[in-house]
Design a protein that fits this description.
Length: about 325
């Protein structure tokens, strides 16, 4: 039974009416598609249909939608889908695409961006204004909202280095401003309140010459092009690096470079990348993740932690204790 369609505390017919009224409202507040294939919205190009995909036209529309949202509605935020694995069966949920929240304002060293601003655009604008600290964003294919949610980073920089505050839309429709210190950010980790959407983020950057900033961005891009399989669909690093080591080194040492399950293959170029060679299913990718982790655990005693987010319903066991988790 659908979590979206059937709040626990309602009579079915009352609830169906409330849900339909909300869905009708969403069509006025932005674009709404049903049964939208998530393979179109993830960089791995896999994943079945989302029951609904809602793209609010702006922040006011999103707030209005959230204030009217049935309390049990299951919602999954989407940035550019560059760090997501969606099941082949799809998502029995409303996926909210924040790409229209794309305002960017620069005032001195403070840059405030909507969740839907692409990190590459953010980096370019900062360079133009002689603002340094987020050069790495030029090379990460996600949005500001996804970048904050993941605490994205590379080349010795990460979002939390410069993030000052976020504006969050809470599950009940309240908009709050939270200082970055309140988010317990760590390596690829941000503690957001359950069901909260990052809608805007403010960064404090330091002054530097635009040419030097651009030069650093160029060097990062070319290093990435030389070492990563960017021509094939992928989701970036599959696993976080364990303390004092590299997931890619361990996976390669386990002999898995080039190993494939169905259409999902451990990249020949970078062992911590899985590429979709054309016809991969989500199940292929998932099974390969499980296999990579099991081989590394067996050979080196290191339990790798996935960096890619498994959204929707998955039965998996990535804990050392052998517990089974259900991701959402
Ligand atoms: C080629 C390639 C290279 C990459 N290199 C790097 C790298 O160097 N460093 C790095 O850190 N990552 C890297 N990534 C992974 C990915 O780009 C980052 O994790 C990025 O921050 C994800 O942003 P997104 O907008 O695509 O988020 P999505 O993949 O859409 O979402 C990721 C997670 O964040 C949640 N989320 C998204 N938006 C919001 C929001 N507004 N509010 C609350 N939750 C939200 C989603 O529900 C999901 O759980 C790479 C990916 C690819 C494909």
């Amino acid at each position: 039974m659908s979590a979206l369609a059937m709040p626990r505390d309602s009579q079915p017919e009352v609830q169906e009416g409330a849900l339909q009224a909300w869905i009708d409202l969403l069509t006025v507040l932005g674009s709404l598609r049903s049964d939208e294939p998530m393979a179109r919205h993830t960089t791995l190009a896999v994943g079945g249909p989302a029951r609904w995909l809602f793209r609010p036209r702006d922040l006011d529309a999103l707030i209005e939608a959230w204030q009217a949202k049935p309390s049990d509605a299951c919602v999954i935020p989407l940035g550019r889908g560059s760090n997501m694995l969606v099941p082949d069966a799809g998502l029995d949920a409303l996926v909210v695409d924040l790409s229209e929240l794309n305002t960017l304002a620069i005032d001195g060293g403070m840059v405030v961006a909507g969740a839907g601003v692409r990190m590459s655009r953010f980096a370019r604008q900062c360079a133009e204004h002689g603002l340094s600290g987020c050069e790495f964003m030029a090379t990460v294919p996600g949005d500001i909202g996804g970048g904050v949610a993941m605490n994205a980073g590379c080349f010795a920089q990460q979002v939390s280095d410069t993030l000052q505050f976020v504006e969050l839309l809470l599950a009940d429709g309240e908009l709050v401003k939270v200082e970055a210190e309140g988010l317990a950010m760590g390596y690829r980790h941000t503690q957001l309140p359950a069901g909260a959407l990052v809608v805007r983020a403010g960064f404090a950057l330091s002054a530097d010459h635009p040419d030097q900033i651009r030069e650093r961005m160029r060097a990062m891009r070319s290093r990435r092009t030389a070492t990563q399989p960017l021509a094939q669909p992928n989701c970036g690093s599959v696993f976080k690096n364990p303390d004092g080591d590299h997931a890619a080194r361990l996976i390669e040492a386990a002999g898995l470079k080039g190993f494939a399950i169905g259409g999902a293959q451990v990249s020949e170029q970078h062992a911590n990348f899985i590429v979709n060679t054309g016809e991969a299913s989500s199940r292929d990718v998932f099974d390969l993740i499980v296999r990579m982790r099991a081989e590394v655990l067996q050979r080196f005693g290191v339990a790798l932690e996935p960096e890619v987010r498994l959204v929707g319903e998955w039965q998996f066991d990535f804990s050392d204790e052998g517990e089974s988790d259900d991701a959402r």
